[in-house]
Design brief:
92 residues, alpha+beta, Alpha-Beta Plaits, four-stranded antiparallel β-sheet, two-stranded antiparallel ribbon, 2 helices, 27% strand
């Protein structure tokens, strides 16, 4: 990761087969990420671990929003935030 990159990143989630104006966002708190990899196990097409063993978002639309929520809920470090289309935190 670029040392000048932000400590968190956002990626939109569009519920499959629905109106993309009601998108959600994934925010990874990279400083909080402990690299456990639960997110990758639950949604491997959405999340990956980078060279520093921190979660990154590959493709936020690669799985159902319910799987993304499950990944966020199973993060032992609470490093994954899910926000609604207005930027309000949905989880945690």
């Amino acid at each position: 990761m670029d040392p000048g990159a932000p400590a968190s990143c956002f990626a939109p989630i569009f519920p499959h087969h629905s109106d993309p104006t009601h998108a959600m966002q994934i925010r990874i708190l990279r400083n909080e990420c402990c690299g456990h990899g639960n997110c990758v196990e639950i949604a491997p097409d959405v999340f990956a671990l980078d060279s520093k063993n921190r979660a990154t978002v590959l493709d936020p639309e690669a799985d159902l929003p319910a799987k993304v929520m499950e990944a966020a809920e199973q993060c032992p470090c609470s490093a994954i935030l899910v926000l609604d289309d207005e930027g309000e935190v949905v989880f945690p």
